[in-house]
Amino acid sequence: MSDRYKLRSYLPKDKQSVHQMIIEEFGHDYLDRSVWKFRKSKPIEKLGLIVSDTFHLHHEEIVASLQYWPIKIAEYKSLLLGPLVVRDHLKGKGIGSLLITSSLKMIKNSGWNFCLVSGEPDYYPKFGFKPVPNNLDWPSPIERQRLQFINLRSLDLEKLSDHTLPVLSDID
Length: 172
Known about the structure:
Layout: E1 5-9, H1 15-26, E2 49-56, E3 59-73, E4 76-86, H2 95-107, E5 114-118, E6 130-131, E7 136-137, E8 147-151, E9 165-169
Parallel strand pairs: 4-5, 7-9
Antiparallel strand pairs: 1-2, 2-3, 3-4, 3-9, 5-8, 6-8
């Protein structure tokens, strides 16, 4: 990544720029996707990351963003990764990977049990994500192959297979 791009924490002032990027990436109907039904509250600001372009001395442009949302998998406190948004002209240049690896370092062993993502099935495994077990109950329509998880502590989601594990928003 060029020196002109800077990785930094998400700030409340970034909300509008990030929202605009989400609309550009996913369309105006992005809220209709089932994954957004779990984003009823606010993202966890201290876990959000931004990549900004500092080419212009007096103005930074946000070019990539990653956020996390609190959810529960059954009674287990967990995170929902996303959306991961990277401007089109920077896709394939490692910025998404930088955001994911940097954020995973922040959340490992931080009190959260698991992290779920609904994303490209061939992208997230390189970061340690695996397909969710069959007993994970996602309560709305989704392409099941897009759902992936990573264990964040010693608890293993795959070994909790003796009962159904409903996914809930943090305020359900």
